[in-house]
Specification:
This protein is α/β, with parallel strands linked by helices and 299 residues long. Helix content is 45%, strand content 11%. The longest helix is centred in the N-terminal third of the chain and has 25 residues.
Length: 299
């Protein structure tokens, strides 16, 4: 079987449909589709990454679209390594990765979308958000005291944070993503769906392996206490913000080799759906090109 025909589950199977209520428990974390092993996945990914290089060149030349990839997931879900592997073949001049940590003092003086909006990719470029504005509708759902720090009118104490507050934030996100979509930004949102058992295994590996110990943070295991609350928060986020303009992809993350291959397939498929084309030359430009070719050939 040719490399590009090696089987994967249809990518549409991983979209959280805006028309169907979303529950994490309906999405297994350990799927591997029809791929038998890592070696088969590597073959598929090699072909896809070569195609991604071509599409990036076309995206840049066309200059009408931008690509925004958003990665969300629990600690140890594989965001960093997935970005590294999926984007390993692209030209770094046309791609920028931004990792969003806890808001600093300057960022807290603006609305919650400000710090990410100013980092959006311009047309012809690829932008990657390692975490994003979705942190502001996930983490504060578990730790609402973080909202008090944001100095929002009418929010003085925890009891002021009512369901309407979150609805307004979801509406702001949906309005922004719809606006970006209408103006040429392809938004692909990936939730790396990891099981609690696999997270435990990866955290222990970080602790035990010297080369990985630097990646371990005390908050990684401390936040495991809130596992169910985070699951509930993300379910609400998906139900409120998976739209036709910017759907969520729920990617099984227990097997990194499958996760990376699936994401690379999704990115390539969605870029191929765009009307990308090399800009046509005017008659004057074509004449200049012909003249330059003739002179070079005559040297």
């Amino acid at each position: 079987m040719p490399e590009h025909e090696l089987p994967l589950l249809p990518t549409r199977d991983f979209i959280a449909s805006p028309q169907t209520p979303f529950r994490l428990e309906d999405h297994p974390t350990d799927q591997t589709g029809l791929l038998p092993d890592k070696a088969a996945a590597r073959q598929v990914r090699k072909v896809q990454l070569e195609r991604l290089q071509q599409l990036q060149d076309l995206l840049y030349a066309d200059g009408r679209y931008a690509l925004l990839l958003i990665f969300q997931g629990t600690d140890a879900s594989g965001k960093d390594s997935t970005i590294k592997h999926v984007m390993s073949g692209v030209n770094p001049q046309g791609c920028k990765v931004v990792s969003f940590k806890e808001p600093n003092t300057t960022e807290l003086q603006h609305d919650f979308l400000w710090r990410t909006y100013r980092a959006l990719p311009r047309k012809g470029r690829i932008g990657i958000f390692n975490r994003s504005y979705y942190e502001d509708v996930i983490v504060p759902r578990v730790h609402p005291e973080l909202i008090i720090r944001q100095q929002i009118p009418g929010i003085h104490q925890l009891s002021d944070i009512q369901p309407k507050f979150w609805e307004q934030r979801y509406r702001s996100i949906n309005d922004m993503e719809r606006h970006l979509h209408q103006n040429g930004t392809l938004i692909l949102k990936f939730f790396l769906h990891l099981s609690a058992g696999e997270q435990k295994r990866r955290l222990l590996k970080r602790i035990r392996k010297p080369a990985k110990q630097w990646k371990f943070a005390m908050s990684d295991w401390q936040e495991r206490v809130y596992w169910e609350q985070y699951c509930e928060a993300f379910e609400d986020v998906v139900n409120q913000t998976s739209t036709d303009a910017a759907p969520w992809y729920i990617v099984p993350a227990d097997h990194k080799w499958y996760m990376r291959t699936l994401i690379s397939r999704i990115v390539v498929e969605q870029l191929e759906r765009l009307d990308l084309r090399y800009p046509p030359l005017s008659d004057t430009q074509q004449a200049q090109l012909d003249k330059a070719r003739q002179r070079l050939e005559g040297e």
